[in-house]
Specification:
The protein is an alpha/beta fold. The protein has eight helices and seven strands. Helices cover 41% and strands 21% of the residues. The chain is globular. Pfam families: Glycos_transf_2 (PF00535).
């Protein structure tokens, strides 16, 4: 029997916050009366993340997948491919607690009128470099695929599995930022899109894994991959 919702949450070195984050999302889904499964993908964390996640072993609604490190994007993509087989809807969010579960209700209650619902990051504080990369990403996705998604790389997105399954089938496994492609394909397919502001809070634990020159290298790689996929 398929669930109503599958959560996809990639995790890397989040031992300090992962337990309350998973607990808070579980509580939110329970309060909304959703039949759900949570796919928590531990992407080869080097800290105690796996040990902390093992505490959820008694809850069949929380499936922890410990995997070799492949990066944030490929991990999300793997989660999507699991999720579309398990539930009618797939929701992806990050594990850093920067976007809270209490705002999920605004998307869930509107789902029947839309195919893809996105929480765009409101009040996000970024460096000049990251702001520029976000701007270029948004413009590139708009030019290559079409407009419709306000925050093309937001880690807060609810998508019908019937739509998402078709899209992820055509995305290569090593894609650095699959969410850019998914945002673009959702627009290209003339899907019914909803955008809702969700407050964004700065990271309180852990650290950002891609900084300085690695950030620009990653951005260039992501852009080139997105262009290539858009033409395929």
């Amino acid at each position: 029997m398929r669930h109503e919702l599958a959560l996809v949450m990639p995790v890397y070195n989040e031992e300090e916050c992962i337990e309350p984050v998973v607990t808070s999302w579980r509580s939110e889904f329970v309060s909304l009366g959703i039949d759900f499964v949570m796919l928590v993908l531990n992407d080869g964390s080097r800290d105690r993340t796996a040990e902390v996640l093992a505490r959820f072993g008694d809850d069949p609604r929380i499936r922890v997948i410990n995997k070799a490190n492949s990066g944030h994007g490929p991990t999300i993509l793997q989660g999507y491919r699991f999720g579309v087989e398990l539930a009618e809807w797939v929701f992806q969010t990050d594990s850093d607690d920067e976007m809270k579960p209490q705002h999920f209700k605004e998307l869930w209650l509107r789902r029947n009128q839309y195919d893809a619902l996105f929480g765009f990051r409101q009040g996000r504080e970024q460096s000049l470099g990251r702001s520029l990369i976000s701007l270029v990403s948004r413009r590139a996705v708009g030019l290559l695929f079409g407009s419709g998604v306000v925050d093309v790389n937001t880690p807060y997105r609810l998508i019908r599995s019937s739509l998402l399954q078709e899209i992820v089938r055509g995305i290569p496994d090593d894609t650095f930022a699959p969410n850019l492609v998914i945002s673009g394909m959702v627009a290209r397919k003339k899907s019914r899109i909803y955008n809702h502001p969700v407050p964004h809070e700065g990271r309180r634990t852990g650290s950002v894994s891609i900084v300085r020159w690695k950030l620009w290298k990653a951005a260039l790689r992501s852009l080139l991959q997105t262009v290539k996929i858009s033409r395929s």
